[in-house]
């Protein structure tokens, strides 16, 4: 009891002395499934409440997001963690915050202050949950340093660093469209039978980890009423809906990063040629702490080099540098906040004008029956004389960009005549009916979009052609569709298996017949999807290993090797080849294990990895689903998470949405305060 009283007094004194937020002004309201509804007087208090509620559900992942800011991830995770500690210093994230902090609006600064105060208060009240001593308190600038690192990973910086440190200095790789994705659909009232505007929020992310969605509802007396998805460490939702409008993001693939090779001085180690002059690289030291297997923490210093373009990485092929839109950019947090607070399309578009969010398509809808598509990105204004999607010379100011395109320069479409918009990570020039689509030639060639089409875009177009108008049931059927188009699209040719003669391969005839009779669906009772999944994954590895020309058909002998592998795999692990999809692919957490539908690049997608006994486990795909209908005065919302709101195994909300998820069901949500309080299971203050 004495320990409890002392702890209480410490927390009380901390809040009294350091905190500007009064927790008594904040209500955290949790209903049946535990989603936190945060009610407060101010936006700042709402952010404080979100920090507390999210920490209750997943403090560990939130901390891991910010440990590199302190240089502590190496102390926690050893060598693996120290790599990220180094990267945050290599990219000069702290310096970016120091330079750009003054450009943030006072409103968003207050919100971040509230969020940081909430995290610090939770850490003080729960010291046993702190992963590394002296992590807390964190400051607002430390928070933004970690935020800038996250923006780098949204800007392809991670991929470039991986290639440079791995001595792979080729042009940026094409995107393998059949392995990742997100969906966003919007329908105007002219296209719906109930005269409501529809929005499908359906990103495909990892189901767990730092980029898995958390659901929260932020409400303040300053006009905030936003329900949606956010990542651990985020002070408000990045996708979702308020009472007037909503939006989702999907990944897009313009050319975001420019990669350069430096011309180094033949004798002077740290000098490179630029505009005919020899210029010195800027040098500094990254201070790292690495936890060894013995438990000893070893201090290490590692060199950091910078050119006029950005960080420099030396490898066996030379010295390279790159320029990213994440350098000198923390304004995206301002943009997302203003998108949250927008009450109509004009205010929403004004938020987009900030051009801080580094990438992502936007699919938007509102209660006034506007729908909008934007292929958003912070893209540099480039000299068209250079091939920017290839390795560039780093010795001339002609390749040193210093400005970015405005919103008006980017592909966008408002209220197309056919009444619908969609994106499945496909081309921005295929976002609606062919009669309404944008024309590629109207936009800068330096954008170099790398996406084109995928199975989801082809399948959506197959489905939408069937309807003059859609009902809400049709809308759900489209969203949850799990069927490949015919033929199946793939960067390499996969359809040859459907042309094989089973009689030519008697030992594989039964397997070939199953695949050839397969209806291209992946529901849990399906026969054919398991066999296809094993076959396809092996074939994909073979194509990559053999470095085959992806534009040419694959020889039958290669197909047969993958079929032979599939036959042996199924017999070895299941003692039969007639394995149904739900027997093979599982949705797993704790002691709950359920058959889950879906395959990669289906509209309702599921990606998986090895689990046990030949089975696979879902690891990414439909990571947060929100279906919204806007009437003139009402907003109807249904959502679901893959597991539950909490990442704590002892929580009742650790697995309580899993059955809904695998059965393609959702929970009803509301923005109405009276209804939320009326149906609450728990109402409390964050203390």
Radius of gyration: 26 Å
Poorly predicted runs are 1-12, 14-18, 170-179
**Net shape:** globular
Say how many strands there are. Answer: 27
Class by alpha and beta content: alpha+beta
Give the termini separation: 17 Å
- Oligomeric state of the chains in view: single chain
How many distinct helices? 18
Query: Helical content, roughly?
Result: 25-40%
Summarize the structure.
31% of the residues lie in helices and 22% in strands.
Care to describe what's here?
With 687 residues, the chain is of the alpha+beta class. The chain has a domain at 490-577. It is built from 18 helices and 27 strands. The strands form five sheets. It has a ten-stranded mixed beta sheet with strand order 19-17-16-8-7-6-5-2-1-27, covered by helices on one side. Strand 1 and strand 2 (36-40) form a beta hairpin. Helix 14 (529-546) packs across helix 15 (556-574). It is globular and about 70 Å long. The relative contact order is 0.13.
List the main descriptive attributes of the protein structure presented here.
ten-stranded mixed beta sheet, alpha+beta, disordered N terminus, 687 residues, 27 strands, globular
Secondary structure layout:
Elements: H1 2-18, E1 27-30, E2 36-40, H2 43-70, H3 73-77, H4 79-90, H5 93-100, H6 106-125, H7 140-154, H8 157-165, E3 183-187, E4 197-206, E5 214-220, E6 224-230, E7 239-241, E8 245-250, E9 258-261, E10 271-274, E11 277-280, E12 282-291, E13 297-306, E14 312-315, E15 318-323, H9 332-341, H10 345-352, E16 361-366, E17 371-375, E18 392-393, E19 412-414, E20 420-423, H11 455-464, H12 472-479, H13 509-517, H14 529-546, H15 556-574, H16 581-584, E21 585-589, E22 592-595, E23 606-610, E24 616-630, E25 635-640, H17 658-662, E26 667-669, H18 673-678, E27 682-684
Helix pairs in contact: 1-6, 2-4, 2-6, 2-7, 5-7, 9-10, 14-15
